[in-house]
Amino acid sequence: MNFDGIFTPAITPLAADGSIDFAAFDAVLEHLIASGIHGIIIGGSTGEYYAHTAEERRALAERAQAVIGGRLPLVVGTGATRTEDAVAYAVHAKEIGADAILVTTPPYALPTEQEIAHHVLTIDKAADLPIMLYNYPARMGVSMGDEFFRAIKGTKNIMAIKESSGDTLRLHALASQYPEIQLSCGWDDQALEFFAWGARSWVCAGSNFVPGEHVALYEACVLEKDFAKGRAIMSAMLPLMDFLENGKFVQSIKAGCEIIGLETGSVRAPLLPLEADEKRGLAAVIAELKAKVAAAVGETVDA
């Protein structure tokens, strides 16, 4: 499994009654496939997996596999507090023909690093699929540290890690000490640093609605090795990254998708959608970003 490129954690559109809008979900997937990204993740936090029933999560994975049809790699999230539940999502991903699974630390339970390793290895044994680990201590309360990596060393299916600690020292350690595990940027405003340290992958929620600009940064840094262009693109993207970290992340991602014409519906409780003035602010940020990135890559921005 090659995790190179931009992997988008897809949103989950909702109908007016709060149910999943599968027709709109299909449109989101088709939009992403046409946009030039390199892979799609279903069942991540951007997709509001934590607010879905088990049946909804399975239905979304099945629908995604049917729509994508092998045109891009499909990665299915297995996030759950109980190892048994994570195993069930992973086995289901295997059954439907997903290309890989996203395996995070169990939230809330606060397992030790040895216990996190046992959780991951149990999932791996059950599903036997390529794994992208997901380290996000700010949400999960625990981190995948050196003890964890010693415990999982040599596991063939553990191929990549979405590193979302925000700790540059952790980035340095992963790049230098664990080169066999592919680095994927999971902390957006450090994308340039990740690419400078050899990462070839970026899991970025903003690529739901500005995919071309995310692809442009990847291509500049990873394919062209042009970090001067990369810095110009990154500078243009920083205001969006600041906006997304305003405490309303998923709401902002869905609002961005709505701004470009996708049907998204609202967000599930306990979250609430952006206010009208917040949406206007986001629209202005997006417009400026697109103009500046177009200038950096020498293109004409779409009207």
Structure description:
The chain is an alpha/beta fold and 303 residues long. The protein has one domain: Aldolase class I (TIM Barrel). Helix content is 49%, strand content 12%. The chain has helices at residues 22-35, 54-68, 83-96, 113-127, 137-140, 146-152, 168-177, 191-196, 211-223, 227-244, 249-259, 276-297; strands at residues 5-9, 39-42, 74-77, 100-104, 131-135, 158-163, 182-185, 201-203. The longest helix is centred in the last third of the chain and has 22 residues, at 276-297. It starts with a strand and ends in a 6-residue tail after the last helix. The model has no long low-confidence stretch (mean pLDDT 97).
Strand arrangement, largest sheet? Answer: 1-2-3-4-5-6-7-8
Rounded to the nearest angstrom, the radius of gyration is 18 Å
The description of the largest β-sheet is:
8 strands, parallel, barrel
Mean pLDDT: 97
Number of domains: 1
At CATH level 3, the topology is: TIM Barrel
| Tally of separate helices | 12
Measured as a percent range, the helix fraction is 40-55%
By secondary-structure content and strand pairing, the structural class works out as alpha/beta
The helix/strand order is: EHEHEHEHEHHEHEHEHHHH
Strand content: 5-15%
Note poorly predicted spans: none
In whole angstroms, how far apart are the ends?
37 Å
Top CATH class: Alpha Beta
Shape: globular
Classified in CATH, the superfamily is: Aldolase class I
